[in-house]
Specification:
It is a single chain. The protein has one domain: 3-Layer(aba) Sandwich (Alkaline Phosphatase, subunit A). It has a nine-stranded mixed beta sheet with strand order 4-5-3-6-1-7-8-2-9, sandwiched between helices. α8 runs parallel beside α10. By secondary structure, the protein is α/β, with parallel strands linked by helices. β4 and β5 form a beta hairpin. The longest helix has 23 residues, at 180-202. It is globular, with a radius of gyration of 17 Å. The protein has twelve helices and nine strands. Zinc ion is lined by residues 12, 47, 169, 173, 221. This is Alkaline phosphatase family protein. InterPro entries: Alkaline_phosphatase_core_sf (IPR017850), Phosphodiest/P_Trfase (IPR002591). It comes from Kiloniella laminariae. Pfam families: Phosphodiest.
Length: 278
Amino acid sequence: MGNKILLVIMDGVGYDTAVSQCGYLEGMVELGRARRWKMRTALPTISAAMYETIHSGLSPIDHGVTGNEALRPSIVPNVFQTLHDANFKTAAVAHSYFHTLYNGPYDLFDHIEVEDEEKNIQFGRFYSMEGYNGTNICAPAEIDLCAQASLLIKRHSPDYLLLHSSSVDSLGHRYTADSSQYRIQTWHIDNALARGIPRWLEEGYEVIVTADHGMNADGHHGGAEDIMRHVAFYYFGKGTITADKDSVLDQLAIAPSVLQRLGATIPDSMKAETLFSD
Ligand SMILES: [Zn+2]
């Protein structure tokens, strides 16, 4: 109770790729300083739908965001709104979709930086990736995202901080999941997290690293293939997760588990059992 949580979403990083490419995360697991499980996502495996699932504990079919098109603000109880209403501090370094979902329609010139305690995401740094194309991925450097997260911690000490990287998803669409570009970019996230996570742990955060969905060899996700649905779930913290190391966790459990660790009341709509026993 009363913990602070930093949740990292590595967009589009499937389970096997995380386990094979993330040498720092896996090294921490090997030394017993973190734990890792396989997690199964809800369906359909589309980014905005999964962002809302991770934050509402509901399947896309129930929360209503089933795709990236015509994205609109969340209409169900979610982590950001629940925390905001209970006077917790929230922050995010994330794609602008998160602004649309939890703070309302995104106007780049107004919202690229948000400092507004009335908003569900009170302190935000949002990126657009506008102009993304086959020769320029338009993704921020992973370490820049980590540094922005660190500055938000320094300035505001948020109770809940989301750090969302989109680069692997973009390269996966461009080159497929069966490509050096996809695999090596996954390692770049790991390499940046190796510099961020020790600081964040030192600053008193529990860190969770997961993904919204995976990617297949067509450079696609959205369906129900294991390669799209299986993601990693790493936990750096003192809470007790009772699931044994070979069990497959449920993505719907993230939202109530985060609220539980923070000591917030879990909305009735979040029905999945929490991951933590304490
Ligand atoms: Zn994608």
